Amino acid sequence: MAGYTQYANPDVTSKAIGKELPISPKDSREICRMLRGKKVNVAIQMLEEVIDLKRPVPFGRYNSGVAHKPGVGPGRYPKKSAKAILAVLESAKHNAEYKGLDADNMKVKVIAASLGRTIPGYMPRAHGRSTQWNHQSVNIEVILEEVE
Fold first, then answer.
1. Residues in the chain with pLDDT values less than 50
2. Over the range 47-67, which residues count as b (16 or more CB within 10 Å of their CB) and which as e?
């Protein structure tokens, strides 16, 4: 169970984790909120529509100054985060196929984004000064559960 936030029965679940992905933590949290509880094929289709700029991700928390999108309210199209989360989701689906589970009949039980390591950096400024310009990373965990 190392690295996961919840215990899952290994007979009916499959797991995948993405460590230190160079994506936005805020966008990742909103994408995970959108996908939680969906069937795997629906979740993959939703992420592909976000990447193709066809479906906006509704922003419930980090929405100050975010323009409204049709039928959603405040939302954006975070392509880079969607691609990274799609890769982790497909990895969990392939793990289910490898274990002999019905990959098409699974739903997203747990999907969570947590802060990873902060990579320090600096931006040079005038008069020999500098400002911190750190890069955040994100850990994504996915647990899929077979639906009866």
1. 1
2. beebbeeebbbbbeeebeeee
